[in-house]
Amino acid sequence: MSRSSFPTRRRRGRYGGPVEIRLARTADAEAIRQIYNVEVTGSTVTFDLVPRSSEDQVAWLEARSGAMVVLVAEEAGEIVGFASLSPYKDRPAYATSVEDSVYVRADQRGTGVGRALLTELIASAGARGFHTVMARIVGHHEASIALHRAVGFETVGIEREVGRKFGQWLDVMIMQRML
Predict the structure, then answer these.
(1) 67-99: pLDDT as tens digits
(2) What is the pTM for the complete model shown?
(3) Which of 30, 94, 106, 136 lies at a 20 to 30 A Cα distance from 40?
(4) Which residues contact 40 (CB under 8 A, 6 or more apart)?
(5) Domains of the chain, CATH where assigned
């Protein structure tokens, strides 16, 4: 997807103004890290157990250039969410499949930020020649499951008790959208 397709605007925001969806920049790394680390330490939506350092976050962001994009949602100068594409699997035959991740700051959930990010991420994946987008969602995360269904993902499987965090076994729902 060319940069000319950005920004996408959403009318409703916490501050009443538009939300811009754009490609992430290195300067966004700290805001992305803060959003992500809240989920690492306080939820099961990511299976990471250790918060990212500032250096790790910059390295993660720099590794996702080219086809593996990171998008941010910015409102009134603040990053309120981010979404990224990652390789689905390492083996070469999986090269046309990617996995999505979407994280929205808690005070912005339910406002359309996640949907705007995911919609642009799907368009970006298609423009980069990918064939399918996969989502791996902790089984009880109803908001993420509903978000993915709303933009055309279908459930293709469930992995039972494949993760353990905060003393509980966690299932993962696998969802897929063909492009």
Answers:
(1) 999 999 999 999 999 999 999 999 999 999 999
(2) 0.91
(3) 94
(4) 46, 48, 49, 50, 51, 52
(5) 3-131 (3.40.630.30)
